[in-house]
Amino acid sequence: MEEASSPSTAKRRLIALMQAGHPWQQAATLAGIQIGRSAAYQLLRKFRLQGETALQDGRHGHPAKLRQPVRQWLETTCREAPHTPSRVVQAALLERFGIQVSVGHLNRVRAELGIGTQAFHQKKNFNSPAFQKNRTGKKEQADSSW
Domain map of the chain by residue range? Predict the structure, then answer.
């Protein structure tokens, strides 16, 4: 099976094969794309009505917002100042790179990288005597008598 060079080329081959009388499944296999029956016939109908413009659907996918160099900047910035709130990082990303990233997504990425306010507080609190557990699994308060 020959690999299509682009989605529009593959769609063009699919349409040509279907117009030549091939069943949609065979046409899709020969064109090198995965497509469902209804989508194949919908594309064929749209091509008959609109011509070549039917091959461009206007979508380009949704690239990950935090690719290099954005991710590298985020990692460096948060390692230098892990206590920086995500809303501040969010504003800096918008100003510096022109991308809008939700605070929730930033928190997930920061946690994944082990950087940021949550990871900073977890490490700090985990070692705190006030949060150590006894053998029964219950939290013990540290002796606060002076």
Answer: 7-55, 70-129
